[in-house]
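Would you kindly consider the sequence and fold I have copied below?
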Amino acid sequence: MNVLGIESSCDETSVAIISDDKLVANLISSQDFHEKYGGVVPELSSRAHLQILLPLVKKALAGANISSDQIDLVCATAGPGLIGALLVGLSFAKGFAYSAKKIFIPVNHIEGHIYSGFLMNDKPEFPYLCLVVSGGHTLLLLVESDTEIKKLGTTIDDAAGEAFDKISKLLGFGYPGGPKIQEAALNQRTDYKDFPIAQCKNEYDFSFSGLKTSVLRFIQKEYGEASKIPADHLQLIAASFQYSAVRALTTKVEKALQNYDVSSISLVGGVAANKMLREEFQKLSVRYNKKMVVPSLEFCGDNGAMIAYRGLRLHQNGIKYGFDFNAFPSLADHTFIR
């Protein structure tokens, strides 16, 4: 079976092809121009998807050495995400599938991330704990099968990736915040300032709003404003913030490991590219003797491969959809997460 996967939920346009269970193409076009605006501009994102999607599909087909009529299954991200950006990829996928009389599967973007570890040679084993960390979502999940996902915890305010973006902007590093903070914090001590970790009513929930505020108040108290912070102190603040953010994530994973009998653990999403987070996750894996699966960097960010894989597994599990399926901006819709 040849599967076409399309991802366009935010600022990456990605097209992937899985042929006979092998990934043969995964093209990603990143919209780097958003950096000068300090964040993603939805209208500009939608236009960029429109311009690049068809050329990217043609390039993926050529690279996989197959024709469009050889595609058996068409999958596309239906949400959550920016509604305009989603509609570009989803409408293209539905039109492609309808005109060619192919099977169409809409895919939940977060579920794509959850199962992205299966794109690796060493795959997760059910049941497994999955920490999803991105710019828009932070979730701790118990993944029991292809269609059974139990939500243990989520963020009650801001996502971890959003906190990285906001603190990076506050410190003058720019966007995107994750790589900027990581670069500034490299080889710096992490105890310059002990920023507090919020305690939530649900022991598996996350909160990053207070952490952001704590960093802001510290800067106001010690320096007056961010522009007056010495360069070396900027790096120390970045390192202390990163350490606290990572600790906030891994502490909840450790609690879950103490209470749930799982075969493996998986770290996914854009923030999974963070080196410190990966290292701390590895320590948990060793400490609790659990297999760890973290996707390669290519599959941490938004990508068509995870959409193609997730759509394929839904199809193989007998899940069917019609062409009247609409895009959705919220995680609350169309998901197996319970």
In short: The chain has ten helices and ten strands.
